[in-house]
Design brief:
The protein contains 11 helices and 13 strands. It is an alpha/beta fold. Strands 3-2-1-4-5-6-11 form a 7-stranded parallel β-sheet, with helices on both faces. Bound molecules: uridine-5'-diphosphate-4-deoxy-4-fluoro-alpha-D-galactose.
Amino acid sequence: MKNKIIVTGGCGYIGSHTVVELIENNYEVVILDDLSNSTEDTLERILKITGTKPTFVNIDLKDKTATKAVFKKHNDAEAVINFAAHKAVGESVQKPLMYYKNNLYSLLNTLSSQLENGIKGFIFSSSATVYGTPETLPITEENETQRPFSPYGNTKKIAEEIIDDVIKSDSKLQSISLRYFNPIGAHESGLIGELPSGVPNNLMPYITQTAVGLREKLMVYGNDYPTKDGTPIRDYIHVVDLAKAHVLAVKRIIDKKQEQPFEIFNLGTGNGFSVLDIINTFEEVTNSKLNYEITERRAGDVPKLFASTKLAKEKLGWTANKNLHEMISSSWKWEQKLRNNN
Ligand code: UFG
């Protein structure tokens, strides 16, 4: 019999890639999603890639009664992977209450409903934003967390603290929090990828949307940072590599391999690339020029972030395999297919 995994936010960007990897590793998947930042069409795309259409429940996890009912129905699940959350940094600064309400109510309802139904495994989708402005690089899981700049980031930090408290209360919860650096790229089929609503906040979708003519010009936010070319450095990670780490985390929990009931792993490549590195590689991959302009710094941007990948390698047996070229060319393939409607 297949192990059943509940994936909240499974129609979204990282969620859909993880669902594909779970299905390909012989798990049964139940997606809970309110489609607030995704479409049901993703299910057909997952079917095209894997030959299996996952079970789908359209549900708002802020709704306690509905959440309890769905967990009762699927109480034979082995674990939950929690992707369901709003994630736009800028919007969260404008609408903090919406972010705290959505990201935290849904977390609380998920945790209490799964525990009521004896589902002990919980994988949490976290972010490198919990490290704030790190004092030392590469960032290890031992680095102190700091209050993130944005309410969005703060929901990630608070969520980890909630999980920690729930575990200390002897609830039997078994959790792994995965702190993502900068996920980009798309599935090699070009059938699933990132679909930002409105104007993208993040660099990669802004670049691809500029290149297809949806945006006029990319604004590069500052070139006076203390880095090799003055633009900020990030650790970009292919979404498919990221998805594979979730499958390993699920397996670690099911196989009872955890050394502590709450474990935290950074997910990055360990390599830092500047904004100009990304633009230059994009131009190489597409053999075209990107329209961009250097402008003012964006509030809250940290000069340099990249991960230590040691712990994830040692404990999860995970390392990122895909290079920057593959990340950027897959993002580009996805954007082009999307605009050609296939
Ligand atoms: N950038 C631009 N122009 C743009 C967009 C981004 O120059 O139009 C630059 C940013 O200034 C930054 C780099 O590109 O230097 C990367 O920016 P992203 O917005 O793509 O990514 P961030 O590192 O700011 O954000 C990521 C995640 C967030 C998370 C944050 C902090 O997307 O979820 O890291 O860890 F909160």
